[in-house]
Amino acid sequence: MTKIYDQAYFDRWYRQRGIGAGALAHKVAAAVAVAEYHLGRPLRSVLDVGCGEGAWLAPLRRLRPRVAYLGLDPSEYAVARYGRSRNLRPARFGDMAALRPGPPVDLLVCSDVMHYVADAELRRGLSGFGELCHGVAFLEVYGEDDAIDGDMDGFIRRPARFYRRAFERAGFAFCGPHCWLSPARREDAARLETA
């Protein structure tokens, strides 16, 4: 059975049981801070892969009112309802292999998505991340040993090392909580800024 990301899905997992506005604001602030630290300037552009309803936009705009934001998601509901007001467009994760919606961004966000994506599509999509991002990628994903409270329908249990290797194969270097330096930035980092 194919999962449907409609209003009922977002109501259940993001409004009734999901992360609160304060917790999301802290997560966004941390990602912005890491990106700006490595960029050496204020954040200008964000690409949100698997953005859902574009929840990152409001806290981003509170921090950086003029940031350019683009959200990509396969949910017909989210794109139809919020596409115009939040700049959301339809795309699947695997489309990132070839999709180039604009110049590379300062911050690429992919939060709570990859643990629902099949291996082949995950590898395909990640292969394009290095060209999509020339700053920092916030890649929030949970492994098989993490305590998870949320949507387990279609959740793919993989070890953390699986994701580490996948991100490194895509050219990224770990630089903080869920944060990865893009191939364009990783050589500029000091050895102890990456692991």
Automatic annotation (TrEMBL):
Keywords attached to this entry: Methyltransferase, Transferase
Q: Which residues form a coiled coil?
A: none
Q: Which Pfam families is this protein grouped with?
A: Methyltransf_23
Spans traversing the lipid bilayer: none
Q: Name one GO molecular function term.
A: methyltransferase activity
| CDD domains according to UniProt | AdoMet_MTases
Matching entries from InterPro entries are given as: SAM-dependent_MTases_sf
Q: Which organism is it from?
A: Coralloluteibacterium stylophorae
Keyword Membrane part of the UniProt annotation? no
The GO annotation for biological process reads: methylation
The molecule here is called: Class I SAM-dependent methyltransferase
Instruction: Read off the Gene3D superfamilies from this record.
Output: Vaccinia Virus protein VP39 (3.40.50.150)
